[in-house]
């Protein structure tokens, strides 16, 4: 919450394009911290959803499923966006380019439908109506979950390869200090996200490929709750990357002038 306030209040941080996706991820994490986790604690304390109403279940679904999955997608976009900011910054130099490549990918749509709830299970059984249709279940698992994580990993590895290939041009750039911080930030985010979320989506895919349904259930449960550490620890990564010392390349240093005696 403090980091969100800092970015919103500080004009330079608020206007920096590379902070917008970070800010969106932080905002998506707030309902999970303030609503989702508290609902879990109340459920395990009372043994039932309290109060047992449709509105509470919808709110819980919206935070537990919508905001968490949205955060995973935004982290994948963060990795792709770093390529655009560092190597194709001219795409963001116009209003149309910023709309297409920066703001529009942050828009997420939620289709309406009619649901049923079970107040004796966590997250009211977490079974939105769209999951009753096979294609939407596959879409949720693969397109909204697995693909963003794999894309994030590929984009992160691809970024370091591109940096190595074009390191001479980047090191001589006046923006290298800021770009270096963004690269460090991306790898911290990707490492954190993939460590906890990759098993959550990888195990169900293995079941679709023939793994017995009861295999990996215990591990999946552990990783499900460990996934909340992505939300808890993410807020420290932008600050850590911001305070990382900047090593100025030799080519950018200017020789000291000799002062007259």
Describe the protein's topology.
Blueprint: H1 2-9, H2 11-15, H3 20-46, H4 54-87, H5 95-103, H6 134-165, H7 167-171, H8 176-208, H9 217-226, H10 228-234, H11 236-242
Helix pairs in contact: 3-4, 3-10, 4-6, 4-8, 6-8, 8-9, 8-10, 8-11
Q: Can you tell me about this structure?
A:
The protein is mainly alpha-helical. It has one domain (2-109, 116-247): Up-down Bundle (Rhopdopsin 7-helix transmembrane proteins). The chain has eleven helices and no strands. The chain has helices spanning 2-9, 11-15, 20-46, 54-87, 95-103, 134-165, 167-171, 176-208, 217-226, 228-234, 236-242. The protein starts with a helix and ends in a 19-residue tail after the last helix. The relative contact order is 0.11. The model is unreliable at 243-261 (pLDDT under 50).
Quaternary organisation of the protein chains: single chain
Fold-level CATH name: Rhopdopsin 7-helix transmembrane proteins
Q: What's the CATH C level?
A: Mainly Alpha
The CATH architecture is: Up-down Bundle
CATH superfamily: Rhodopsin 7-helix transmembrane proteins
List the domain count as a whole number.
Answer: 1
Let me know the number of strands.
Answer: 0
Mean pLDDT: 77
Strand content: under 5%
- Ranges where pLDDT stays below 50 over 5 or more residues in a row are 243-261
Distance between the termini: 55 Å
Q: Helix proportion of residues, in percent?
A: 55-70%
Q: Main sheet, how many strands, which sense, barrel?
A: none
What is the succession of H and E elements? HHHHHHHHHHH
The Rg value, from CA coordinates, equals 22 Å
Classification by helices and strands: mainly alpha
Q: Total number of helical segments?
A: 11
Shape: globular
